[in-house]
Design brief:
- The complex is a heterodimer of chains A (about 170) and B (about 190).
- Chain A has helices at about 10-15, 20-35, 35-50, 65-80, 80-85, 85-110, 115-140, 145-150, 155-160.
- By secondary structure, chain A is mainly alpha-helical.
- Chain A has a domain at about 5-50.
- By secondary structure, chain B is mostly helical.
- In chain B, helix 1 (about 5-15) crosses helix 2 (about 15-40), helix 4 (about 70-100) packs across helix 8 (about 140-150) and helix 9 (about 155-160) crosses helix 10.
- The chains are: A mainly alpha (about 170), B mainly alpha (about 190).
- The interface of A and B includes residues 19, 48, 49 and 75 of A.
């Protein structure tokens, strides 16, 4: 076969690796069957391809599957609340929950404010107490002259020196 | 006919945990190996594979069956892998720069090199292949791994990598040409 008519190496590589469309592959097969040089190139590519198979696969470690399952289980539990409803529902529920929370908080704060009725009751109760105390003072007996005399003659007080009851600082 | 994985994913979307288990069992080995080949570190590869499953689970409610399930899965995986490689590049460069001078400092930095156990397990030929693939630019590397080891077709790869189908063919061709040059001694040695 005339060397000028040989196919390009890239085309022969594509043929050897089944990278051509059906019509191109048929054409290349016919050519390679008749052209020793191109047949040699294809054989070299196939030989190289066979050599690459000597790089053997390895087995994953024994704990690989368990690690993947644990990672997936962790992911599953992390997304639990949203798994029940889905993200779309979560997007609706989140603002609704926020509004509900604000409403409940407002209600609780307003209930803690003191009302006017207890204030009135407290004022009435306080006035009654003052009136009672005034009555008590009114009923106290007034000291008579003899009462003063008795106090003046009280032993302990009589021992106090007259005019010397100064407190020295 | 609907892709079987799509059906499973639609069931996961409606809350079927058993369908997620089926997807986990089906894609655990391919995903871990995809990441091992991309990031060259089994512990990191498993962390990233776990992250893919977690993201699939997290996205279940938003999932729309527009493309094949594997296209979506490997798109997540490839983005994670490329980000992990980019995040680790300065560290890898530092290790290379200081290699020999400060071995003790480099020892506790994330190491791209395989462990002693891995080295014992792989043959010299396998090591040559691994190094040749690792040496490819990141997009070529991702394209080769998806095409060769994950059996993802080039149309899907174009969607995963966000490039045109012809760009995928070109990426793969350039990658295989580089691999052929790097692995020439091995290929000439026969026994393949």
């Amino acid at each position: 076969m005339n060397h000028e008519k040989c196919m390009e190496r890239e085309h022969l590589f594509a043929y050897a690796h089944h990278l051509l469309e059906a019509a191109e592959e048929r054409e290349a097969r016919e050519h390679v069957a008749q052209c020793a040089a191109c047949g040699q190139v294809v054989m070299e590519f196939q030989k190289l391809d066979a050599a690459l198979e000597e790089w053997k696969p390895i087995a994953p470690s024994v704990w690989f599957d368990a690690r993947v399952r644990a990672a997936v289980a962790s992911e599953r539990s992390a997304g639990f609340p949203f798994r029940l409803f889905g993200w779309r529902w979560a997007q609706i529920l989140a603002p609704a929950c926020l509004v509900l929370l604000v409403t409940v908080a407002s209600l609780m704060i307003s209930r803690r404010q003191p009302s006017s009725a207890p204030t009135e009751r407290a004022a009435q109760s306080s006035a009654a107490q003052v009136e009672e105390e005034l009555t008590l003072f009114k009923d106290l007996p007034v000291l008579e002259d003899e009462d003063y005399e008795m106090l003046a003659n009280f032993d302990v007080l009589s021992e106090l020196p007259h005019g010397e009851a100064k407190v020295e600082n | 006919m609907m892709d079987q994985d799509l059906e499973l994913m639609l069931r996961v979307r409606s809350g079927d945990a058993e369908s997620f288990e089926v997807l986990l069992r089906r894609y655990r080995v391919p995903l871990v190996n995809f990441f091992v080949r991309m990031v060259r570190d089994q512990a990191l590869a498993e962390d990233l594979a776990q992250e893919v499953f977690l993201r699939v689970y997290q996205a279940r409610r938003r999932y729309q069956p527009e493309a094949r399930f594997t296209t979506w899965l490997y798109r997540i995986a490839t983005n994670l892998a490329l980000n992990a490689i980019r995040d680790r590049k300065p560290v890898a460069a530092m290790v290379q720069f200081e290699d020999g001078a400060k071995q003790s400092d480099a020892a506790h930095i994330a190491d791209e090199r395989p462990t002693a156990e891995q080295l014992m397990m792989e043959s010299e030929r396998e090591r040559m292949i691994r190094r040749a693939v690792e040496a490819l630019p990141e997009k070529q590397c991702a394209a080769v791994i998806l095409h060769k080891y994950q059996n993802v077709d080039y149309r899907q790869i174009s969607k995963v990598l966000g490039v045109s189908e012809s760009a995928v063919k070109s990426l793969l061709f350039r990658a295989y040409e580089s691999l052929r040059a790097r692995l020439e001694p091995l290929l000439k040695g026969g026994q393949l």
